[in-house]
Amino acid sequence: MFSHCLVLLERAEPAAVKLLQDLLTRYPDHAPGWEAIGQALLRARKAEAALACFERATHVSPSCTRAMGRGSALRMLGRVAEARDAFDEAGRLDPHSGRATFLLALSAQDLQDFAAARDGYLRVLANNPELVEAHVNLGTVLQAMGDLEGAKQAYGAAVRQRGDTFGRVSQAMTMSPKGELWLDLESLRRHLAG
Questions:
Q1: CATH 1.25.40.10 spans which residues of the chain?
Q2: Angstrom distance (rounded) from CA 7 to CA 100
Q3: pTM of the predicted model, to two decimals?
Q4: What is the CA angle 162-152-192, rounded to 5?
Q5: Deepest of 50, 60, 75, 140, by most Cβ within 10 A of its Cβ?
Q6: What is the pLDDT of residues 147-184, one digit of tens each?
Q7: How far apart are CA 22 and CA 20, in angstroms?
Q8: CATH C-level class of 1-95
């Protein structure tokens, strides 16, 4: 029944609401099913409903992925401090989850706790140096902290790994109070690429 409900949700069929009510009555403690429904609702940008599903699944059987789902729904709702707590919980449930560490750092960045965000991105990159998004985010955090040279090193790592990040990086460099404006973008690209 959960699989059928997923199909209905993905098609935005009105019958999904009735089926969700039936599932709640018949299978209130089926954590994997509620987690799957929560993921589908997140993809559909229905954060309130997704949060309810993740909370139900977490209540039955806590896991790193369920805590990350809760955090993602809370972040989508603008409840960033609560999202940070959920991502912290996810990291405690699976200390080896790079994704949980990344999301915790991202929520710290959202809350302008730049030191915690920097430390989180550095932990992620220690185990996953190929994660371009962490390099870019680390650059923006370092730049916000006033470390432009460190930011350029992080940006350079991102650009060297994936050239299509250059546009985002060049824009980020001008957005912070401590930044740089390069009129010759090809020179900037070469400078970052090292």
A1: 1-95
A2: 28
A3: 0.85
A4: 50
A5: 50
A6: 999 999 999 999 999 989 998 998 888 887 777 777 77
A7: 5
A8: mainly alpha
